[in-house]
Design a protein that fits this description.
Blueprint lengths: L1 H13 L3 H4 L5 E7 L2 E10 L4 E9 L7 H12 L4 E4 L7 H6 L3 E2 L4 E4 L1
Parallel strand pairs: 3-4
Antiparallel strand pairs: 1-2, 2-3, 4-6, 5-6
Length: 112
């Protein structure tokens, strides 16, 4: 909660629906680098290894895609089969595509 409060304005800039969806979070990862929290991944876990992505946030100093590469590699090892992102967000499309998501009509999807 401390990390979210500290970075709330920046998180909401990328994920404006975060506060409305935060109650459905039941899958959470904090990504550390050099003893600092570098990122937050929060999702609603559905059945059969499917995640509905709510927040995939990285602090400014770590926005070089390395956190995302590490995170998605780890998620595939945890038997996550699919990640769906259905929100409208700003400035996140390029990142999702670089991380291997496919754009559908209303969402982004990553299959493992």
């Amino acid at each position: 909660q401390f990390f979210v409060n500290l970075n709330k304005e920046d998180i909401l800039q990328f994920f404006p629906e975060f506060e409305n969806q935060s109650k459905s979070i039941n899958f959470l990862k904090l990504i550390y680098c050099e003893n600092k929290i570098a990122g937050l991944f929060a999702a609603e876990e559905k059945e059969n290894g499917v995640l509905n992505l709510i927040v995939d946030y990285t602090t400014k100093e770590y926005r070089d895609y390395s956190v995302g590469h590490y995170l998605f590699n780890e998620l595939s090892a945890e038997k996550i089969k699919r990640i769906e992102f259905n929100q409208k967000c700003q400035n996140h499309d390029k990142y999702l595509l670089k991380m291997g998501f496919s754009k559908t009509e209303n969402s982004f999807v990553k299959e493992f």
